[in-house]
């Protein structure tokens, strides 16, 4: 997998180019000849889906940036009046960008849950996982700043809530907040610097995605059985055409959901309060972030102390990076770890529950449940994973990927012979 | 399943049920939610009714425009998927308004001139900005160009899940809210009491009653009709490209379904040799 490519171009021009800049060889060895475990399921297509969505966000974002005006007075109108009404298909580009961000996060959550379920973070893929956590954090920052840009009511409120978090830090907090804001509250300077950073960070994400794919290609994919590739001929298939066609099909299905969102329910995920221009004197009655940040919002609000709430919020993300050292079970895939599988699904329910609570007004009852679920969230990582590493009775794992595939389809052997 | 596992699962389910139950409990008979109406533009194949939009525009012009701005370009009234006025009608309409020119004249004076289709509807003359309006009314009447998109009410679990599903999708919350508010002034002795407004005290006293606007196409001049028509018109003002969006969407979805089908069978064919 790593090492010089064996690709020899057919044309003379191709060979001339390849000798000077071996791009074609790189593409060939990474995406054509690259061996991929043959037992991957559709959970493994989300990497390709995410790559498409990243490109889609960047392309739609760059086009929006041609018409958007990053000034507190003009931002709202540039989006709602200019882009949505005057620019040809501006409405389409804008809806693609906002709904694309939501689907980007949906895909990233499925991708991460796949990693947690099948143990894709275990040796030798720890760094791959950590790079993924970095990408996730950058995505959250980018999305947060992007949401501020239309300068709607909720944009302003969200910016105020999140940037105020830094003021929780003792001694330096207030000064840090003023430095971030460019003033004594969220205002025009905040908007312009968020615009600058929102344009910058996606390219930083691209760089980290490059590292992510590189790290992946060094170790090779994990697979649903959690057994490493032993024999390249028996256990793997070439990326092209097998993974290529499967990923393309998965992207097409994903785009059906994307099209449904853009064309028929484009405002479903857009908070109505963001169709009102920002007014520092009028706060929305319910301040909520976008759905993909809701679980963290719930954790933040569940902790009664401001500083501890902020620390819990960041801890909830940082704990993800520690997972390769929290879960030491020698069995990778939850397919063969029935106890872990149970707690995994409880964890999924906990996350969805936290997300729902994040969208609700905090009351005595919801805060209590949020606290229970926060304990559940951290408990999964800090208690369940380490304990199960040693205490779990796992099912026997197959000897190799080929054995796992053949065990599933005993008739396939004869069918292959007849074909 | 061990007892421990059952307890863990039960606690998770209980926590969710509690959260759900709390959400439902917040629904109050005293604060009813706007009932859902039927709209011609709802659903996958919805379109605006030109006649309804024209009547709604008439209601806006004669009643609402006294206090509310509508910052949309005049020319959008002649565009496809809208009220369907002709270019000449729009030119005449625009010229009947006095619009502040963007640049001062040669003497440096800001001046007003008759509008052109490229201009936006001007704000009500008496309230050149939000602060002036708030000084008179207590609260500035919102600009109506996005009003239908900016209104929402708590749907609650599980309705908000169904609102996204094909066939059950619900994007007309704003129109239902506007219709409900206009019909919600149920206490004649308190002009600012509204059944559907959260907290019941709304800054806008009842703006329109039966017979306020004389329709030219024979539709009955009742409050219910005014409310329906103006809500539809405001939905159009907030989403003028709704018809085009749904049309393009249908083509996109058909294309994607066919593409996904073809890719599926191609994938199956390619993978045959492996399986």
Overview of this structure, please?
The complex is a heterodimer of chains A (419) and B (275). Chain A is mainly α. Chain A folds into 3 domains: 1-33, no CATH class; 38-289, Up-down Bundle (Cytochrome Bc1 Complex, Chain C), CATH 1.20.810.10; 296-332 and 338-393, no CATH class. In chain A, 67% of the residues lie in helices and 1% in strands. In chain A, strands 1-2 form a two-stranded antiparallel ribbon. In chain A, helix 3 (46-65) packs antiparallel against helix 9 (188-219), helix 5 (90-118) crosses helix 11 (239-264) and helix 12 packs across helix 13 (306-321). The radius of gyration of chain A is 24 Å and the shape is globular. The two termini of chain A are 30 Å apart. Mean pLDDT of chain A is 92; it is low at 414-419. Chain B is mostly helical and 275 residues long. Chain B folds into 2 domains: 28-68 and 139-260, Cytochrome Bc1 Complex, Chain D, domain 2, CATH 1.10.760.10; 72-122, no CATH class. The radius of gyration of chain B is 25 Å and the shape is globular. The mean pLDDT of chain B is 89. Classes of the chains: A mainly alpha (419), B mainly alpha (275).
